[in-house]
Design goal:
Elements lengths: L1 H18 L4 H11 L7 H10 L9 E2 H11 L7 H14 L4 E5 L5 E5 L2 H14 L2 E3 L10 H4 L4 E3 L19 E3 L11 H6 L5 E3 L20 E3 L20 E3 L20 E3 L21 E4 L26 E5 L18 E5 L18 E5 L18 E5 L16 E4 L2 E4 L2 E4 L2 E4 L5 E5 L11
Parallel strand pairs: 4-5, 5-6, 6-7, 7-8, 8-9, 9-10, 10-11, 11-12, 12-13, 13-14, 14-15, 15-16
Antiparallel strand pairs: 1-3, 2-3, 16-19, 17-18, 19-20
Helix pairs in contact: 4-5
């Protein structure tokens, strides 16, 4: 392997000398071209890098968001596209095309940025070779309708747009990113109806109050991002989005989900975390058998035990779930409710009334990360440390826990105590981190970052 790597570097050096390359951008272009030599990824990995120019310069990019865009574009496919997307990000980091800002407990990149020189390279390739219009963070106050003509990817994120002309037509656009235009409150139905090729639509952090009924025309839409948007309802026409795989409504003002959501048979990710106005989950979600990611953390007003509404026990039909996070408001988790979720990899549970974990959870043999909030939890059995892939347990507010599992069997365990009130301020006590030998290796104050199902 060492000889092979050496030969590769000698080949690259020879290429530099033969080409007579002098400019920095040309040299960096070689790094981009070399992505085509990565076995099994070829063009898609190059396009993944190019699409990062859709973000503004010096932006710290959340890996999961980039992967969502890539999935929407069709650049990441397979039976586990999120995992493949993580591999893509790590490959780009290994080749120094992105700069990791934070890595997770497993070494995977969680946040990263693109150096301004590399960002310029990606931007140049995007506009000259890939029919992209990327003008994020340019201080635009008017929608550049004329400039968008003929482009297939448009990013106008982090601007000051207030409206989109009704006369604007976009039959060729595959990706439209409008996030962080806080004054944008409406998208004309005529514009939506014209986007017949659209696959990715990001309206996060806009002032959008509603979506037009013409949303049902977006037959090719794969990714719809409505994070932190004051939208209260979705039109029933979203049920016509048969190719929709990602629906992110987290931190929105959504009050209810349409019953037609049961028709989204391709949906893989549904995130309604931190939706404080959401009171119920429609029963039709139990029919979304392709669903792999379901997040409802900190949506504490959702009731799980009302008749004709989704119950926790109904989640057992979602046997493809890999990541799940919810607060069991109104219903106690009992034996038999979660045991059928055998594909589970990341699990977040708020067990407000339980003294022990349901034993049927031991069927989750693929579990990699377990986060528990358990103010009444007394015991965690050693059997929960026998899982081959489990490498992280995080325990929150488990103040009366009397028996811990065999810590030496896990490489990473975190104990986070409940918040305690000190005058007007609310702070968290120190957390204890244990290494794989069962010893405490450090203590740190709470950073204020709240856990989610998808990190």
């Amino acid at each position: 392997m060492a000889g092979s790597a050496s030969n590769e570097w000698e080949f690259k050096l020879q290429r530099l000398q033969n080409d007579g390359v002098h400019s920095l951008s040309d040299r960096l272009r070689l790094s981009y071209d070399a992505l085509a030599d990565v076995d099994g990824y070829v063009i898609s990995l190059q396009l993944c890098f190019v699409c990062l120019a859709a973000f503004s310069e010096d932006k710290v990019i959340y890996t999961e968001l980039a992967i969502k865009y890539w999935i929407g574009e069709g650049l990441v496919a397979g039976t586990n596209p999120f995992q493949i997307g993580e591999i893509y990000v790590n490959l780009l980091a290994d080749r120094c095309l992105i700069e990791p800002v934070r890595r997770g407990y497993d070494g995977n990149v969680v946040h990263f940025r693109v150096h301004d020189v590399l960002h310029d390279l990606a931007h140049q390739i995007a506009e000259k070779e890939e029919k992209c219009l990327f003008q994020a963070g340019r201080g635009l106050s008017e929608f550049p309708a004329h400039d968008c003509s003929g482009h297939v990817r448009v990013s106008l994120m982090v601007n000051s747009l207030t409206s989109i002309p009704k006369a604007f037509r976009a039959p060729y656009i595959r990706s439209l990113l409008l996030a962080h235009n806080t004054s944008l409150k409406e998208i004309p139905k005529e514009v939506i109806g014209s986007m017949t090729a659209l696959r990715v639509l990001d309206l996060s952090y806009t002032g959008l109050q509603s979506l037009p009924k013409s949303m049902g025309c977006l037959k090719h839409l794969v990714c719809l991002m409505l994070h932190h948007v004051p939208i209260k309802r979705l039109p029933n026409s979203v049920g016509a989005l048969k190719n929709l795989q990602i629906l992110d409504l987290s931190k929105s003002d959504i009050t209810e989900l349409p019953d037609g959501i049961s028709k989204l048979t391709s949906l893989k990710l549904l995130d309604v975390s931190s939706c404080e106005n959401l009171l119920r989950m429609p029963y039709g979600i139990s029919r979304l058998t392709s669903l792999e990611y379901l997040g409802a953390i900190r949506s504490s007003n959702i009731s799980w035990n009302k008749p004709e509404k989704l119950s926790i026990s109904d989640l057992g039909t979602l046997n493809q779930l890999k990541r799940l996070g919810f607060d069991n408001n109104g219903e106690i988790i009992r034996e038999g409710m979660l045991g059928s979720l055998r594909q589970m990899e990341y699990l977040y549970l708020r067990l407000t009334d339980m003294e022990r974990l349901p034993h049927d959870m031991t069927a989750m043999l693929k579990l990699r990360k377990l986060l528990l909030v358990g103010p009444q939890l007394l015991e965690i059995e050693n059997s929960f440390c026998e899982f081959q892939h489990l490498s992280y347990i995080s325990l929150f507010e488990c103040d009366i826990l009397k028996q811990l599992p065999a810590m030496q069997k896990l490489p990473y365990v975190l104990l986070q105590h409940r918040e305690v009130s000190r005058g007007r301020k609310s702070t968290s006590q120190a957390r204890s981190i244990f290494n794989g030998r069962g010893g405490e290796v450090g203590a740190a104050a709470n950073s204020g970052r709240k856990s989610t199902a998808f990190t």
